[in-house]
Amino acid sequence: MAIPRRVVILSFEGPDRYASIGGLSTRVSQLARAFGANGSTVDLIFVGDPAAVAVEAYGPNVTLRRWSQWISACHPRNAYDGEAQKVLDWESSVPGFVVDSIVAPAAALGERTLVIAEEWQTSKVAVAIDRLARLRGVRDALTLMWNANGTYGWDKIDWPALRAAAAITAVSKYMKGELRRIGVASLVIPNGIDTDLHKGADPRLLSEMKRALSGRPTLVKVGRFDPDKNWLQAIDALAELHAAGINARLIVRSRYNEYAERVFAHAYERGLNVERLPYEGTDGHKVIEGIALSEAAILHIRAFLDEPTLSALYAAADAVLANSGREPFGLVGLEVIAAGGIAVCGATGEEYAEAFVNAIVCDTADGRELATYLRTLLASPRIASEMRRAGAETAERYSWAHALVALDMKIGYVDAVRQ
């Protein structure tokens, strides 16, 4: 195999709640575990909780290294709070640590190191790692990749320098196309999902969630409040269902921000009331109790939902709206179908989604299109059952084991080109 025994992953996001902002946190956390289970020794360097220990074991062969904690202590909101200062800190401190503490010692033992840097915040770090590895005479013992999960921050990247330093990779064919638009060639290395997700939702928790939903048509949307996520389409679709006499509700899980005000204002304009779940802790059972008590058209949850609770919600709901207008990969939709739920995807990067076979796929941002599909789904239990079954079968093909096979092949190519 081409995957080295030593692996380093660089990402602002990570497994801490402080660093769990989007799909990137899930990606790097599960990728680190997959490498560790595969026998590699892994260091996941991320902007972690400032109150947590700086270095911590994270499953077999994986070490978490929380970077920039001294800055995060002054910026308690999340990993991107104080971003500019953290980026500078990473550029000055991470390259030396990676090369001198990991790459060089591994090279002295005749071993290679794989470094995967994620997103624009690490682009200059990757360039500096390449430069320092050359100065130390260990560049031949280093496989260096920089991965694109989205387009945000690309205006800050020195593309010629990055292309000269690292192999450029993308998380999907959609992102490969976005890179191609700016003249950057890339290798596609897809995400996987945790093996445990293939087991579906926990039966007892699923039963508890179904009792809380009490048979009322329920839609779920999880993701940040952002225009790219087609929130207004979701609101319009819910309003269309109400106009058709269907008393559906939408359960929303997202942190509140300025765009949330626009979304909820639109809901009120469409005659939909919004309620916020008072509980904001980490106990999934209390969240389920709050759902059972709510009669609102839209219930906004700000509590942390652990994986079992989230899977139960996905599986119990009639549909989960992962209907983004721009979706680099669509990890949420993949997790939904693995849990036994029905995902509603946009038409951008969800390569696993087969329209009306294993998922609903919207071609527009029109709420009426989404409402049309949802009405059919709610009226056709047989279609819903077949879609859930097909989705679970599809999810089986998106394990991290499969993703590592693809990555192994790409590493072999990158190393061959560097020789």
CATH fold call of the largest domain: Rossmann fold
In the CATH classification, which architecture of the largest domain applies?
3-Layer(aba) Sandwich
N-to-C SSE string, H for helix and E for strand: EHEEEHHEHEHEHEHEHEHEHEHEHEEHHH
Rg over CA atoms: 22 Å
* Extended strand count: 15
Distance between the termini: 17 Å
Topology (elements, then pairings):
Elements lengths: L5 E5 L12 H15 L3 E6 L8 E3 L4 E5 L2 H4 L10 H26 L4 E6 L4 H14 L5 E7 L10 H7 L1 E4 L2 H9 L5 E2 L14 H11 L4 E5 L8 H13 L5 E5 L4 H12 L4 E3 L7 H10 L4 E4 L5 H10 L2 E4 L8 H9 L3 E3 L14 E2 L5 H13 L1 H15 L4 H19 L1
Parallel strand pairs: 1-2, 1-5, 2-4, 5-6, 6-7, 7-8, 9-10, 9-13, 10-12, 11-12, 13-14, 14-15
Antiparallel strand pairs: 3-4
Question: Please, could you describe this protein's structure?
Answer:
This protein has 419 residues and is α/β, with parallel strands linked by helices. It has two domains: 6-192 and 399-418, Rossmann fold (3-Layer(aba) Sandwich), CATH 3.40.50; 196-395, Rossmann fold (3-Layer(aba) Sandwich). The chain is 45% helix and 15% strand. The protein contains 15 helices and 15 strands. It has helices spanning 23-37, 69-72, 83-108, 123-136, 159-165, 173-181, 203-213, 231-243, 258-269, 284-293, 307-316, 331-339, 367-379, 381-395, 400-418; strands at residues 6-10, 41-46, 55-57, 62-66, 113-118, 142-148, 167-170, 187-188, 218-222, 249-253, 274-276, 298-301, 319-322, 343-345, 360-361. It has an eight-stranded mixed sheet with strand order 3-4-2-1-5-6-7-8, sandwiched between helices. β6 (142-148), α5 (159-165) and β7 form a beta-alpha-beta unit. The longest helix is centred in the N-terminal third of the chain and has 26 residues, at 83-108. The radius of gyration is 22 Å and the shape is globular. The model has no long low-confidence stretch (mean pLDDT 95).
